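Structure in, sequence out. Go:
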């Protein structure tokens, strides 16, 4: 009986070991305390399943949020939602998360994946996980025209000026991922060539939310390095022209024109992307 129990235990370890890989997608992870925090891997990486956390805690406080300027609706707005900081703080405390150089990744149901430094949520501007538009005159949480996009959650900020583009406003928000910046970027950071650092930082700020390199980043747009680097099959002059006016290359393109990045900076991004063809994933 002891031998049989040992065999069963070993088989169990073999089965669950892939689940604890840091590269698993959120839906395949296992929670240490699923009723409270969704998924926790270790003190360097934590995933929070928002729907699981927020719907199971009926006592979690909601609040009405007055937004100074909403970039989607292009006006001031009023929502009901959850202040993000208590949720983050409870997770950090529970799993003893290492906040040094940490980032927060917002995961959305359409593959959009914007990133911010975790420290940014502790500034004067407050973030809220909104679940209801209080100006919607219909019974639902969101106007019919945006309901499919915005559910289940929309991240809003109470006091951001119209010209401030440093805050991200993801809708269709499903989860939050807290992660060490070193861990997230280890497969894509140009450690061996400091001349590529500027291009990497520009890529992270402008492209990372929709595009990935070596499977790190968003999934709205195409992957840029695996299995082939985009510069191996796209001319660089076409890449420059495309990002400025995607509709001139592709009918009904989901990508908006990039108007806030200079040609010089776009060339730095392409230089960085091109360099990554020598640093591809094996599989």
């Amino acid at each position: 009986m002891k031998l049989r129990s040992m065999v069963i235990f070993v088989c169990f370890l073999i089965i669950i070991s892939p689940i604890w890989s840091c590269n698993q997608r959120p839906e395949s992870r296992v929670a240490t305390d699923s009723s409270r925090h969704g998924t926790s891997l270790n003190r360097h990486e934590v995933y929070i399943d928002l729907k699981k956390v927020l719907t199971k805690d009926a006592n979690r406080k909601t609040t009405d949020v007055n937004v100074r300027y909403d970039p989607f609706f292009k006006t001031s707005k009023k929502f009901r939602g959850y202040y993000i900081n208590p949720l983050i703080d409870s997770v950090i405390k529970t799993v003893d998360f290492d906040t040094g150089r940490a980032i927060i990744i917002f995961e959305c149901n359409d593959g959009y994946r914007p990133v911010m430094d975790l420290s940014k949520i502790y500034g004067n501007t407050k973030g809220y996980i909104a679940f209801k538009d209080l100006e919607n005159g219909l019974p639902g949480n969101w106007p019919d025209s945006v309901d499919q996009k915005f559910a289940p959650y929309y991240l809003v900020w109470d006091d951001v000026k119209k010209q401030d583009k440093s805050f991200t406003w993801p809708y269709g928000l499903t989860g939050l991922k807290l992660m060490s910046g070193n861990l997230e970027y280890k497969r894509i950071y140009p450690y061996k060539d400091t001349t590529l650092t500027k291009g990497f930082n520009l890529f992270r700020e402008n492209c990372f939310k929709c595009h990935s390199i070596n499977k790190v980043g968003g999934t709205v747009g195409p992957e840029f390095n695996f299995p082939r680097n985009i510069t191996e099959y796209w001319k660089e002059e076409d890449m420059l022209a495309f990002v400025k006016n995607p509709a001139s290359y592709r009918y009904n393109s989901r990508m908006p024109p990039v108007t806030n990045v200079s040609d010089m900076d776009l060339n730095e991004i392409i230089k960085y992307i091109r360099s990554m063809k020598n640093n591809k994933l094996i599989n």
